[in-house]
From TrEMBL:
Protein name: tRNA pseudouridine synthase A
Subunit structure: Homodimer.
Primary enzyme class: isomerase
Family in the record: Belongs to the tRNA pseudouridine synthase TruA family.
Binding residues annotated for substrate, in chain numbering: 115
Domain Pseudouridine synthase I TruA alpha/beta per the UniProt entry, residue ranges: 14-109, 155-249
Keywords: Isomerase, tRNA processing
Gene this protein is translated from: truA
Database matches in InterPro entries: PsdUridine_synth_cat_dom_sf, PsdUridine_synth_TruA, PsdUridine_synth_TruA_a/b_dom, PsdUridine_synth_TruA_C, TruA/RsuA/RluB/E/F_N
Lineage top rank: taxon: Bacteria
Reactions catalysed according to its record: uridine(38/39/40) in tRNA = pseudouridine(38/39/40) in tRNA
Length: 250
């Protein structure tokens, strides 16, 4: 593919992650990236590869995520989303497609990413696939928010990183971390310049241990400073996690 004839496009889309082993292509596993590339390649009649803003874990959802792809042909930015939505399964939805500069990158040019995690404090048959059902033991949201303030004291989140990954650095700049309660549902909103694999779920699992009284909020400092994944709590279930925003300066 010639550099001078290559056009780069961004895709804004969303998906329900229940049926997928995350976004990124994996051998012998169905992924969102595989479905997206298959649809694009079929419609545009050329082999299309995408680069996503991030790679969500198995079962994790995305309300707003971006990917870019390169092509040698101009695409119809109005009609292509409609064609893709007709081709893709119902749990993947294309919002818009737009042209960007040839070197603009969906992953590396993202200024921030924001996730939300949902916990149901009451047995709720309608949120079985979208929230962690944690109704057998109460959670102290005030203690969990005390712990949130501690997150801003650090930038090395090795203790919340999945082991044996290809991360070149475990440094992340935290912008927001807050728990809110609406009725019987807890929502954790966390925003940072980047996230490590499994990081949000590991933080939520540790926060739940704090909220249930197993450990104290101040114990979070020891966990982070230990730089050991085994020091933190068990990862929260993937189905309660949503990527809700990725920010760029277009």
């Amino acid at each position: 593919m010639s550099y001078y004839t290559t056009l780069r496009y961004f895709i804004e889309f969303s998906y329900n992650g229940k049926n997928y082993f995350g976004y990124q292509i994996q051998p012998d596993a169905i992924t969102v990236q595989e479905e997206l590339e298959k649809a694009l390649s079929t419609i545009l009649r050329e082999e299309i590869k995408t680069t996503g803003a991030g790679r969500t874990d198995t079962g994790v959802h995305a309300k707003k995520i971006f990917a870019h792809f390169d092509t040698e042909q101009p695409v119809d930015e109005i009609n292509l989303p409609y064609k893709l939505n007709s081709f893709l399964p119902p749990d993947i939805s294309i919002k818009r497609i737009f042209k960007v500069k040839g070197d603009f990158h969906a992953r590396f040019d993202a200024a921030y990413r924001t996730y939300e995690y949902y916990i149901s404090l009451a047995k709720n048959p309608f949120t079985l696939e979208s929230a962690w059902q944690h109704w057998k033991r109460p959670l102290d949201i005030h203690k969990m928010n005390e712990a949130c303030k501690i997150l801003f004291e650090y930038e090395d989140f090795t203790s919340f990183a999945k082991l044996k990954t290809d991360n070149k650095t475990n440094i992340c700049k935290m912008y927001k971390a807050e728990w809110e309660q609406e009725g019987t549902e807890l929502k954790f909103t966390v925003s940072a310049n980047r996230f490590l694999r499994n990081m949000v779920r590991a933080i939520v699992g540790t926060m739940v241990e704090i909220g249930s009284g197993k450990i104290k909020p101040e114990d979070l400092r020891t966990i982070i400073e230990d730089k050991n994944r085994n020091a933190a709590g068990t990862s929260a279930p993937g189905h309660g996690l949503f990527l809700v925003d990725v920010g760029y300066e277009f």
